Amino acid sequence: MRTLTDNFGRQIEYVRLAVTDRCNLRCQYCMPAQGIDIVPKEELLTFKEMYRLIRVLTELGVKKVRLTGGEPFVRKDFVGFLEMLSYNDLLDAINITTNGALISKHISTIEKLEKVKNINLSIDSLRADRFNEITRRAVFDEVFSTLEALEKSRLNLKLNVVVQSGINTDEIRDFVRFTKDKNIGVRFIEEMPFNGKGLRETQENWTFKKILNEIKTEFKVQEIQSEKSSTSRNYSIQNHLGTVGIIPAFTRSICNDCNRIRITSTGTFKNCLFDDGVFNLRDFIRNGASNEDLKALFLSLVKEKPENGFIAEANRTKGGVSESMSTIGG
Ligand code: SAM
Ligand code: SF4
Fold first, then answer.
1. I want to staple 232 with a disulfide (CB 3.0 to 4.6 A). Which of 109, 212, 247, 275 is the partner?
2. Is the CB of 74 inside a 6 Å radius of any atom of ligand 2?
3. Segments in the chain below pLDDT 50
4. Among 36, 96, 99, which residue has the most ligand 2 atoms within 8 Å of its CB, making it the best to mutate?
5. Is the minimum distance from the CB of 325 to ligand 2 under 6 angstroms?
6. In the chain, where do the E strands start and end?
């Protein structure tokens, strides 16, 4: 089988697909209060087009897909798409990143879909007022009850916490404490400037190292051997059922083992979070490309995967990093 291997010998096995650029929340680190300019519906990939792109990628060795956005559950019949994608027998896992505000009524259906394995739920504060301020929407109670329902479900639950200088850093240890009796992974993410020109000023740089040091002030941690391509470095905490992880999203110390590519909701192919998009797949397929054409294209595109996120950023042609994560598919 022909497989997707880049020029650094990295085998691409994971695709992150943004199923929409729309979102029901307005997280301060992701977009401005008025939201971002969303694209007309016709410019979004249809579910059929997404299914096809994923199918072709799995025929080239991709095994996992993460569905993200925007907020995936904002897109009409997203659950139907999960069912559709489950028919792809070459896929080992379908994972989802969600803000959790719209999913409680879907959990039992999702649980029945065997290929759906992991849910990453974004929750940046355990305090209702603060959470609502960060997301600019009063949805804490709903998100927290989703968290509790997911914890009871068969799905693997991870919490995504963006560490925001001067806003929620005093809760890092609260989140670690939260893993005491819960079989969940809490993952702290370095904040990145992908905020749709929200122009945020930060007081301190909360890097991977600083976050880890903050955890160590209270807890005894031991690094866990993670999968080589893991986006986080992970730790067990003495006497805790759950684990913690830190994602060096901005300091980018994990690029060496990157096995991922991305497709945005408008069908832009990205080799790296920090590049500014290398190919418009939507127009390629709408202009009649065959699956064989697509395969040849993917095989050549991954050869352009930059060695790391710093090089990808330096190679950008459309200006510095400022687009919203909601359009890239974080
Ligand atoms: N709406 C869903 C959610 O919030 O989980 C999925 C899309 S969101 C863009 C995916 C992840 O990116 C979330 O965990 C979010 O916290 C994270 N994110 C968004 N903007 C970010 C930024 N500027 N820096 C770091 N992480 C960010
Ligand atoms: Fe929406 Fe997710 Fe961005 Fe928050 S982080 S505004 S929930 S896309």
1. 247
2. no
3. none
4. 99
5. yes
6. 14-18, 64-68, 93-98, 116-122, 156-163, 185-190, 221-224, 233-237, 243-247, 260-263, 268-270, 279-280
